[in-house]
Write a structure and sequence with these properties.
This protein has 69 residues and is α+β, with helices and mostly antiparallel strands. Helix content is 35%, strand content 9%. The chain has helices at 17-31, 46-54, and strands at residues 2-4, 37-39. It has a two-stranded parallel ribbon.
Length: 69
């Protein structure tokens, strides 16, 4: 199983980098015989949630999130 995540520098937001990375990672995991690919984003992080949905991910459960510092 692979749990993916990415962090795109703010100066590169809305330029397609996040979608390209998140779209390619499930294939990368399957090529390495992964049985599942998961991703996590806080509900408050609407941009990341939308990105994951556009790339075919669905919400399986919700968890709480507490920002560091």
């Amino acid at each position: 199983m692979y749990d993916i995540g990415c962090c795109i520098h703010k100066s590169r937001w809305r330029q397609g980098f996040g979608r390209e990375v998140v779209h390619l990672l499930p294939d990368w995991g399957r090529e390495r015989e992964g049985i599942a690919v998961t991703a996590e984003a806080a509900r408050e992080n609407r941009g990341s949630c939308v990105l994951l949905e556009k790339c075919g991910f669905t919400v399986l459960r919700e968890a709480s999130f507490r920002k560091y510092h």
